[in-house]
Amino acid sequence: MVQIFFKIVLLVSVLSAHFVCYAQKLLTMEELDQTHVYTSIEEALENPDKVFQLDLLTSDYSELPPKIGEFKHLQRLFLYENRLSKLPPEIGELTNLQELFLDENQLKSLPPEIGNLKNLEVLGLHGNKLVSLPKEIGNLANLKILYLTENNMTTLPKEIGNLKKLESLDLAYNQITKLPSSIGSLESLIELFLTANKLSSLPKEIGKLSNLEELYLDDNLLTKVPSEIGDLKKVKQLGLANNRLTKLPSEIGLMESLESLYLSGNKLNKLNKKIGNLRNLKNLYLSDNFLLSVPKEIGNLANLKELNLYNNRLTMLPVEFSKLKSLQNIGLGKNNIKEIPSSLDNINIY
What we know:
9% of the residues lie in helices and 12% in strands. Strands 1-2-3-4-5-6-7-8-9-10-11-12-13-14-15 form a 15-stranded parallel β-sheet.
């Protein structure tokens, strides 16, 4: 009798484990693309265990029913352009979900249950009314892409640094005044968009983003850049236009991969000569500053194709400009330059 009992217990355990594995099994992206795309909750509820994709784009939902949590195998959920002002806690039951698009709604907050979406890789929240994120956002261990453009965000939770797989973080067009030091823990980050916020400074930990390739900080209130910026050896695109910078740290010359540097619309009256170390630089934008001169080291930028010096206070150009063999376009208008060097005769001047 005891043996029979233990056999039953063992059988139940095996079946339970099999059920859990089945419930957690994810289709590959190729397999997922072959599945039926349900376009209404009502239709999907007829076969909830067969729902892998649910597209509710522009369905005019003002709220989601709690039954949304019944789609245990759902991997892709589109909720673009509805009227959602909140999400039900049952959203956290969609543990197979990999892509969640909530762009262009009216969300003011996210439920803490959002942190239960352990398989989530893409989270789109563009164009909502979010002021902050719950700390549980840091539980999304597999998140790779996070879109938060055009919200009302003022801060980020320190738990954002727990997103070790995050590759792209877009926070452009918010109201962020300060970044947490934990931002430096995003070891997989490749793209960081912070255009059009209210940042007046950057944490030194920004220099720990060793895999970063694109950093956009245009249209903020920055008065200086930390010296740790020089630790970003892989950054190719650096946007710092339309800030309040009066100088650049010499460490900017250590950014050996830099190809485009945007510095227009600041308060620079001189450039650090270390900028001449940026041997891979192709585009340098310095229009609308207060530059009185340009360092001769600019002539070392052998790969430079575009140099915009429009609307500064320059009266002359260094003779070393003759070494810019790759230069195609140069902006010199609205300066006080008396004589254009003959070495620029074949260059497009504007």
